[in-house]
Amino acid sequence: MIDVGGEKEGTEVRREATARPLACVLGDTDLVRPLGLAGIRCAVVTRPDSPKAYSRYVDVRIGWADNWADADRMRANLLGFAAETPVPPILLYQYDGDLLFVSRNRAALAERFRFTIADGELIERLIDKTRFHELAVERGLPVPATTVVRPAGEAGPPELPLAFPVILKPVTRRDSTWRPVAGSAKALLVDSPAALAEVWPRL
User: Fold this and answer.
1) CB of 94 within 8 A of CB of 28?
2) 33, 84, 158, 203: which could form a disulfide with 151 (CB 3.0–4.6 Å)?
């Protein structure tokens, strides 16, 4: 196993030499484990204290950086790793932030990685829920009734043109801002106007 671009410089002693490409994973053990069970060895972008850093399916640990706030460092860490591999790694990504990072840095990453990704403008519209709703209306997609609220600019919740209960989601899911509100949940169920008023200050 080797560490690349991590907090501690240097190389650990174990690494299997192989001509097969590694899977370079931007994601967690839910992605690493099935790859490993299929016989595919992995390189992971990870903090040193993350459980996935010690998976038996991981051969390389790449230094972690925030893909929202520190994309330059993330890109440098990945390209530094790929430059040392004999076969271009296959890049796999799991979360919204990973998808946006790869999309926005596709030209640089494509020089050293292999990956498949959709059109950049389409990705931007799909990740941003406000823009996705506009796209859905344009294309006549059967999506639930939706309205956008902006808690930062309003003292209290507006009267919604929706019937309760409603599902509350962030426009884009960034852990640093959404996790304090909802923990690991992707959405909040709000049963009534009173419940919305109660949660509003946390938004």
Assistant:
1) yes
2) 203
Q: For 63-82, what is each residue's pLDDT tens digit?
A: 999 998 899 999 999 999 99
* Among candidate residues 155, 96, 112, the one with its CA nearest the CA of residue 4: 112
Place of tokens 């972008």: 45
**Integer CA distances (angstroms), 78 to 26, 67, 109, 124, 201, in order:** 10, 12, 8, 22, 39
CA distances from 163 to 79, 190, 202 (A): 49, 11, 22
The 3-class SS string of 146-203 reads CCCCCHHHCCCCCCCCCCCCEEECCCCCCHHHHHHHHCCCCCEEECCHHHHHHHHHHC
Average of per-residue pLDDT values in the chain: 89
Amino acid present at 166: V
Least confident of 78-92, 127-141, 143-157: 143-157
Q: Which residue in the block uniquely carries the two structure tokens 């230094």?
A: 63
CB within 8 Å of 42: residues ≥ 6 apart: 22, 23, 24, 25, 32, 35, 36, 55, 57, 58, 59, 60
What's the pLDDT at 1? Answer: 65
CA 104, 110, 112, 113 torsion-angle sign? positive
